[in-house]
Design brief:
22-stranded antiparallel beta barrel; 656 residues; mainly beta; 36 strands; single chain; Maltoporin, Chain A; signal; siderophore uptake transmembrane transporter activity; TonB-dep_rcpt-like; five-stranded mixed β-sheet
Length: 656
């Protein structure tokens, strides 16, 4: 292990809650949803069912009950409460002027792979699907931190997030109707489920926000800084799950969003940011279909998924007009060896992604194919010690703009059972990520003037897990060493004569992060439980000029409390992001990130939420939540866009 790794102390602990048995690749026994323990099963970390305590990786589980208690409207909302995970967006509630929300794990941007029921769901290195699935359709979310490219390929550099959806479980037809009103949004939804199907529809309306970015003192007229406000917006979501047989399931996701934002320049006469400058409005549509085959008797699993995301301009100022598509095929088989003591998992996957730029004067189309073979063998050395060796050979086919290449990825994991309730693991692996398939697009045309390299590197981590029915603890120490880290900059900073108003992807020199993580939960009584956690790291990037710069927040803290008595459930969550990276803007309002200039750090983010639910009868519940209790202007990215101000939601659900 690296010297810098050994110089950092580690402590962590796991929070969670749920007591269900998971079936691989989605679907779950929904009769047990309250408490999660380390004896329960995870499916993401090793591609097969293993007890969390027996899994040599840093894992966190968010259950359906935790999603409900937190008041999260999307998976994107819920993930902000995990230490070491940063939900990055360009506007409040995971939405912004552009549909580019994503999840960063351990400070690495564009290094997180999102799965839905085990099948990849990223597009252009982004995680748009985090907001697409109604939270009511989610059974649980598994988060695996650390290099995961050996089992899952490109984009799984810092970790994997697996959204596991609910499968039909009952013979009897039943459903629910929900309505919600709030200070910022309102929605209504209906869910119906039977023996072989479940379907959820949700309609959402969001109010405009007059300002969602920090304003700097006006100094001179030559700068491009503007005040940003969001329009009223709407979203329709449909999620359909079909059980075609005991081994074959299918699901379909549809999401349509109509939203926009306005920009205002400074008016020197009234001395305020009121002069209309730009008005952008887009329609975003997402369609995803997946077919999943899972034969537990033979150990064979296969999935085929198609994803399409379109962006359409709705007014004159809006010019982005694109289609992004993705095909994913994955198949694997598990063998039990030596009387079930050892396991071998091997498989093949194929990924085709495409991007079409539909501008009449700047049309372009790109496609790229990737395919790989992988295997992981777990050997039980004795009653307490096991080791896993994984390998992957990953091929990227050249397309005229990106070079073809072959990447070999190894991984070694060990697990030592210190007692029936405690384990210690080590996880070392190489991972990589290809540039987005649309990265050759510049302001005028598809270009090969500035080619990117994949970002790749190693992650070293070790940790302990402890747990029983009342208490759980996880401790993890990690070190990441990544080459060619991706970064978005203005085009004129990397290409002579480039457009200063166009963003392009480029490579930095290096990225490193050494840190510790802590997650802990305890059931204090039948009525009261607590969760807490923390992250401390040193994420930094080295640019071509040789300077190291902090690239993400160094500190994250979380604390939560749940109280349940009779028909009432109360929940409060608090999380802090501190010691943050330099702001993209100078205090004069001039953009300084591309040139490496900065004169202040992004302010701390402190979010506190309070939610409650009351069961009126077996078929009726009412819930109420207040979010951002302190009403802070909380920056959510390095452009200092803010999360929502203090807001409330009141909802009612009737089941039939």
């Amino acid at each position: 292990m690296k010297k810098s790794l050994l110089q950092t102390l580690v402590v962590t602990a796991i929070l969670s809650g749920m007591n269900g048995v998971v079936s691989a690749e989605g679907g779950q026994d929904t009769s047990k949803l309250d408490e999660y323990t380390l004896d329960d099963v995870v499916v993401t970390a090793q591609r097969v069912e293993t007890k969390d305590l027996d899994t040599p990786a840093t894992t966190t589980v968010i259950t359906a009950q935790q999603l409900k208690d937190s008041g999260a409207q999307t998976a994107f909302d819920a993930l902000e409460r995990i230490p070491g995970v940063n939900a990055y967006s360009y506007g409040p509630a995971g939405e912004g002027s552009i549909d580019l929300s994503r999840i960063n794990i351990r400070g690495l941007d564009k290094g997180t792979l999102v799965l839905i029921d085990g099948s990849p769901a990223n597009l252009m290195n982004y995680n748009q699907m985090m907001n697409a699935i109604p939270v009511e359709s989610i059974e649980k979310i598994e988060v695996v931190k650390g290099a995961s490219s050996v089992l899952y390929g490109a984009e799984a550099m810092a970790g994997v997030i697996n959204i596991i959806t609910k499968n039909p479980t009952d013979d009897k037809l039943h459903g629910s109707v929900t309505g919600m009103i709030g200070s910022h949004e309102k929605n209504y939804g209906i869910a119906v489920s039977g023996q072989n199907f479940s379907i959820q529809y949700k309609k959402e309306y969001r109010k405009e926000i007059s300002q969602y970015n920090r304003m700097f003192p006006y100094t001179y007229a030559g700068r491009n800084f503007t005040r940003k406000s969001s329009d009223n917006s709407m979203r329709d979501s449909i999620f359909l799950n079909l059980r075609l047989s005991d081994k074959l399931t299918a699901n379909y996701t549809y999401n349509e969003t109509d939203r926009g934002h306005r920009e205002f320049k400074y008016d020197t006469h009234v001395k305020d940011w009121v002069t209309p400058y730009k008005h952008y409005r887009y329609e975003y549509k997402t369609n995803r279909f997946a077919l999943i085959y899972d034969d537990k008797h033979t150990g064979l699993k296969s999935s085929l998924a198609y994803l399409k995301h379109t962006t359409r301009p709705l007014n004159a100022d809006s010019t982005t007009d694109t289609d992004a598509t993705s095909w994913n095929f994955d198949t694997q088989k598990k063998w039990d060896l030596r009387g079930g003591l050892d396991t071998l998992v091997a498989g093949f996957d194929f990924h085709r992604e495409g991007h079409v730029k539909r501008h009449s004067t700047n049309h372009g189309s790109l496609h790229r194919d990737q395919y790989a073979v992988f295997a992981a063998y777990t050997r039980q050395m004795n009653d307490r010690f096991s080791a896993t060796v994984g390998i992957r050979e990953h091929f990227v086919k050249g397309n005229g703009y990106d070079r073809g290449q072959s990447i070999f990825l190894p991984q070694v994991q060990t697990l030592y059972k210190m007692s029936p309730r405690a384990s210690w693991y080590v996880n070392v692996g190489r991972s990589f990520e290809t540039p987005a398939v649309n990265s050759p697009y510049y302001s005028a045309k598809v270009s090969t003037r500035y080619r990117l390299n994949p970002q790749d590197g190693w992650t070293y981590e070790t940790g302990i897990k402890f747990g029983d029915v009342k208490e759980s603890l996880k401790v993890a120490l990690f070190h990441m060493d990544i080459n060619n880290k991706f970064k978005w900059v203005k085009e004129n900073t990397v290409i002579s004569g480039g457009d200063p108003n166009t963003w392009v992807q480029t490579n930095l020199d290096k990225f490193k992060n050494t840190g510790i993580e802590l997650e802990y939960s305890r059931q204090l009584s039948d009525r009261l439980s607590i969760r807490t956690g923390g992250y401390y790291g040193n994420p930094k990037a080295k640019s071509s000029n040789g300077n190291w710069t902090q690239s993400d927040a160094r500190v994250q803290l979380f604390a939560g409390l749940q109280y349940h008595v009779n028909k009432l459930r109360l929940n409060t969550d608090w999380y802090v992001t501190a010691k943050r990276q330099p702001s993209a803007y100078l205090l004069t309002g001039i953009y300084g990130a591309s040139s490496g200039k900065s004169d202040h750090a992004i302010p701390n983010r402190i979010e506190g939420n309070l939610t409650m639910e009351y069961t009126i009868s077996p078929v009726q519940t009412v819930s109420f939540g207040v979010y951002n209790l302190l009403d802070r202007d909380n920056p959510i990215n390095d452009n200092e866009h803010w999360s929502l101000p203090r807001n409330y939601r009141l909802s009612y659900t009737y089941r039939f």
